[in-house]
Specification:
Blueprint lengths: L2 E9 L3 H10 L1 H8 L4 E8 L7 E6 L8 E10 L4 E9 L6 E14 L2 E12 L10 H19 L2
Antiparallel strand pairs: 1-7, 2-3, 3-4, 4-5, 5-6, 6-7
């Protein structure tokens, strides 16, 4: 049975700039933004839109997995919504049969965006597992992205 966890964050970045970073430039930004966690990110298939497959190779800051493949399973530029589903490695190697993060961006001001995050997951076993830090690590990713865009983006 698929379960969901929801969280949200407000960031001081305009929705269009944030959308471009999250939906178009993610593979280039992640290794710069968090080099200890993401050593390299590649687009294996697609053009960044629906069906695109990314390969994220993790750095020394992640000890339990070396890579994760994700497919863009939702992509709606008109409403700034993107869903990334793990299809190999990562979470699937740690007890999940399904793991997907969906980001919904909503402008709340010229330089303000509300990000609603839904993480859907299913355990591969009867035991219900959800790492307790998943929502907080997603929020940390969002804050790191905001910081990178405000202070470190070219």
């Amino acid at each position: 049975m698929i379960k969901e966890v929801k969280t949200q964050a407000n960031v001081g970045v305009g929705v269009d700039f944030l959308w471009k970073a999250l939906a178009k430039d993610l593979k280039d930004i992640l290794p710069k933004m968090m080099p200890n966690l993401v050593k390299r990110a590649d687009m294996l298939e697609g053009d960044g839109g629906l069906g695109t497959i990314y390969l994220f190779n993790f750095g020394p800051g992640i000890k339990t997995v070396t890579y994760q493949k994700e497919r863009v399973s939702e992509f709606d530029e008109s409403v700034h919504r993107i869903g990334l589903e793990v299809i190999e490695g990562g979470h699937l190697d740690h007890g999940f049969s399904h793991h997907k993060a969906t980001f919904q961006l909503t402008s709340t001001g010229e330089q303000e965006t509300l990000i609603d995050v839904t993480i859907s997951y299913e355990s591969a076993t009867e035991e219900d597992i959800m790492p307790p830090n998943t929502p907080s690590s997603t929020l940390l990713f969002i804050k790191n992205l905001e910081n990178y865009l405000v202070h470190g983006a070219p």
